[in-house]
Amino acid sequence: MTTVVLLVALAFVAVAGFVVVATPDPRRQAITLSLFSLCLALLFFALQAPDVALSELAVGSAVVPLLVLLTIRKVGGR
């Protein structure tokens, strides 16, 4: 059972990573980066690392996309 959960989590991470790379618009890429971080947090939780999962959830899903969006706004969306 745990092998199936890990394979599904790894598949979600792989698909989300591809979606981040394939997204051309930087604003949408920041949103997909947040979803990628959520998938990583689920993978870390499945790997029995809840402290790493919580850190990824806080930093990767909230702080990094926010900083990217603020940077895009400051630069002017070039």
Could you name the key traits of this structure?
flat; mainly alpha; 0% strand; 78 residues; cell membrane
Blueprint (SSEs and pairs):
Layout: H1 2-22, H2 26-46, H3 50-75
Helix pairs in contact: 1-2, 2-3
Strand content: under 5%
> Could you name the ranges where pLDDT drops below 50 across 5 or more consecutive residues?
none
The secondary-structure element order is: HHH
Question: What is the mean pLDDT?
Answer: 92
- Main β-sheet, in a few words? none
Shape: flat
Alpha plus pi helix count: 3
Structural class: mainly alpha
End-to-end Cα distance, whole Å, is 47 Å
Based on CA atoms alone, the radius of gyration comes out at 14 Å
- Work out the helicity level: over 70%
Count all strands and give the number.
0
Describe the protein's architecture and organization.
With 78 residues, this protein is mostly helical. It has helices at residues 2-22, 26-46, 50-75. α2 (26-46) runs antiparallel to α3 (50-75). The mean pLDDT is 92.
Gist of the model:
With 78 residues, the chain is mostly helical. Helices cover 87% and strands 0% of the residues. Helix 1 packs antiparallel against helix 2 and helix 2 runs antiparallel to helix 3 (50-75).
